[in-house]
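Hey L., structure's done. Input below.
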Amino acid sequence: MTILEFTTTGLYCSLGDFYVDPNRPVDRAVVSHAHTDHARWGCRRYLAAKPSEHLLRMRMNDDAEFQFLEYGDSISIGGVNISFHPAGHILGSAQVRLEHRGRVEVVTGDYKLGDDPTCESWQPVRCHLMVTESTFGLPVYRWQPDPVTTASINQWWRESQDEGKCCVLYGYAVGKSQRLLAGLDPDIGPIYTHGAVEKGTEAYRKSGIAMPETTYVGSITGKHDWAGGMVVAVPSAHGTPWMRRFGTVSTAMASGWMAVRGARRRRSVDRGFVVSDHVDWPSLMQAIDLCDPETVWVTHGYSAVVARHLNEQGRSAEVLETSARSESDEDAAADVDVDMETDGET
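Output:
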């Protein structure tokens, strides 16, 4: 008998009467991280990893009750021991480990392997049941090492500066933008932020994460020379009147979808950098091997492909159909953080 069951509201634990990453408001939510497609607004009580505190408090309703646990600490609810373990997705992201009478089940939330200066790295958690995302669950998705991509972004900035242009780099407001900021070389020029990005960055700073000096675009009034600068903005700002102030620009999108031919053209940007906070195909397979579950539930993205591959490899895997996100999970996430993006700038 499993600890978790799937319902129309999401993954539910009847023993403790709580949901993990519910897709609608519930009384008690255990959340893997602060993105709004996992941490739903309107729940009465939230349980999450301590490093996500500033992000969650910034985004949730004022009358919600919060409880936070350090990574590795546990709490028992209805006889189920709950603990959080680093997921490497964004600041405070966690795998949710549930244990009852010796059985262990893990909900990965969103995750990636490898080092990231803005959050703790993913750690394998051995389990009987593993619930994993498969946003980029195709062999074509293989990420380059971060230093390679970071060097490419900084080189693009230098080249654009030599041409007298302002760079505008698009990344999602929470997580992606801060990871991009951490990789920028501030010696090249000034760094500016869209309001949504600045809000998320401030939460990172409050959490003790080092960020380069940034200037909020909206704080600058009157005539200003933007040439040679770097603006980190949310994707929804592209093509809006907000962009006019920067003059001649070179634009770029940072996304895992940039690995697909034609993605840059569809986004109508000058450059595309392959940067994702989700596992690529090799890392997905590596994570499953390291956690070594008896059963894998695969959700989001290319779940049918991943489940079929795992079954062919001798593992027991099945697709967990959800309505929380679409096939293009990371594409859809570009506008998930609407509450942070509609700050009058766009």
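The longest strand covers residues 80-86. The chain is about 25% helix and 25% strand.

-- N.
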